[in-house]
Amino acid sequence: MTLVIGVDSSTQSTKALVVEAETGRVLAEGRSSHPDGTEVDPRAWQVACTRAVSAARENAPGPIAAIAVAGQQHGMVTVDAEGEPVRPALLWNDTRSAAETEKLVHQHGADRLAELTGSVPVPSFTVTKLAWLAEHEPEAANRVDRVLLPHDWVSWTLSEPGTQPATDRGDASGTGYFSPRTGEWLPDLLAEAFGGRTPGLPRLLGPAEVGGRTKEGALVAAGTGDNMGAALGLNAGPGDVVVSLGTSGTVFAVTEQGTADPTGFVAGFCDATGRYLPLVCTLNAARVLTTTASLLGTDVAGLDELALRAEPGSGGLVFVPYLDGERTPNLPDASGTLTGIRRGNLTPENVARSAVEGMLCGLADGLAELRRVGVQARRVLLIGGAARSAAVQAVASGLFDAPVEVPEPAEYVALGAARQAAWALSGAAEPPDWPVQGVGLAATGGGAAVRAAYTAAVAQMHGPVG
């Protein structure tokens, strides 16, 4: 039995899985939480990773042959010439670089940036955070010797001393200074954003290349970003669209060709296999359900029961769920609205169902954006905590205009990292074939009418968006 470890270093915690390399069977796991906030000392991630990996290894039935890390995308980790952090890392959800983002897009143009980097940057992107650092903390910026992403940092700290930091094209494609088309860094774009400074960047590794070894001798694979790890863990291929219902929502697809969307709705990322991963992100997903459940004096399970007692269309109620503003469409100052209220339809059941329908319509809009740039949806894979909801499953099956499957619950980001570790260990041309079990949802009617009512409500409240 050959054992590997996959690590998911997310915003909130580190999760580590011990997995049998030949079969993908999970044998042990460990977890450790992260500090809260949008800026964090990256050494806290190092400590959390050590704890999670140690806890997983305690229950492993043998030695670990390889390890890989999939981490939260976009975060800015700056280190000095001694390899120590210059300042706390800025996470993807830190939006202080909004002004620098506008300046960058105005200076270069959205079309040009999409052509160069595959995406139009938003404040989550690393390049905008470096521009903020240069503008607001120039002394700290002068001390920066190297810029890393969160997964780069964690992989580096796992490796034996003297190892050079490395990354993969998947995570690199979310920086704003990498070309998915050529597979190369764009140092001139970085230097311009960083006030003329030219910090070092990690080595770019191929999907199955080895980045180094741990102090104990285990191989360290390239690692990748969390969305790329999830796609790899799901064994997603061309034609598959993943809809992930977490705190925020993501819709992404594995494609053979890259995308470059000047509207900025679709981010033209790379995946972890040598393909591409166009992605749409919404700010409002599972928290729409928890917030509505609280309003109705129940929990998510109770919301589920209420929603299933209502008819499709929620009796005419339409919930536009922009509770935290919205990113797709770009309405950062928007708020949520409930429209179509009449004396006869304002029931707990209809309100509950309208929350489910509204949340999923936002994700269906994301799938429509992917289709607009040429993505073909053969099937939709519905994942994340909210995907387990019976009401979510009942509504989703009629909204996405494609067969919907719900894979069995699993830590797919960590599982994808483990699959990458096993791939690097094997030296094979393709990753190991690990089966993913799932349940197909029976198609239900009424989805077109729900989408039409939702589209009309968005236009009524916010005008044309696009």
Structure overview:
- This protein has 466 residues and is an alpha/beta fold.
- It is built from 15 helices and 24 strands.
- The strands form seven sheets. Strands 1, 2, 3, 5, 13, 14 and 15 form a seven-stranded mixed sheet that branches.
- The termini are far apart.
Which spans have pLDDT < 50 for at least 5 consecutive residues? none
Secondary structure: number of strands = 24
Structural class: alpha/beta
Span between N and C termini?
52 Å
Major sheet description:
7 strands, mixed
Mean pLDDT figure: 96
Radius of gyration computed on alpha carbons: 22 Å
Portion in strands: 15-25%
What is the 3D form? Answer: globular
Helix content: 25-40%
Number of helices: 15
Sum up the structure in keywords.
466 residues; alpha/beta; single chain; 35% helix; 15 helices; 7-stranded mixed β-sheet; 24 strands
Could you give a quick summary of the protein structure above?
The protein has helices at about 40-60, 100-110, 110-115, 125-135, 140, 150-160, 170, 185-195, 225-235, 285-295, 300-310, 350-370, 390-395, 410-425, 445-460, and strands spanning about 5-10, 15-20, 25-35, 40, 65-70, 75-80, 90, 145-150, 165-170, 180, 185, 205, 210-215, 220, 225, 240-245, 250-255, 265-270, 275-280, 320, 335-340, 380-385, 405, 440. It has about 475 residues and is an alpha/beta fold. The strands form seven sheets. Strands 1, 2, 3, 5, 13, 14 and 15 form a seven-stranded mixed beta sheet that branches.
